[in-house]
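# step 3/5: fold
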Amino acid sequence: MPATLRLDKDVETAIQTRLRRIEGQVAGLQRMLETGRDCAEIAQQVAAARAALDRVAIDLVAAGLERCLRMELNGQPQAAATLNKLKKTFLMLK
C-alpha cells in the first residue's frame, strides 16, 4: 500500500496560504458575476485562479516525489508503489 503523503510544515503552510488566496479569488469571481462585470475581466480572473490551482497541484506532486526519493534511498519497499501513484497523479494535471 502506498504511503500517505506527509508534507513538511513549511510546504504545508505555503500550500494552505495559496489555497486561501484561491478561495478569495473564487469569492471575487462570484461577486464579479453578481455585479455584472465585463466578461473579459472575469475570464482573466478565472485564468488566474486556474494557474494558482495548477501551482498547488505541482507543489503537491513535487513534495510526493521528494518523499518517494527519500523512501527509495532508505530502501523502503513501498517506494515503487508510491512513485506509480504519483505518476498517475501527475498525468491528471494536463
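# step 4/5: annotate
Residues 22 and 52 are 7 Å apart (CA to CA).
# step 5/5: archive (pending)
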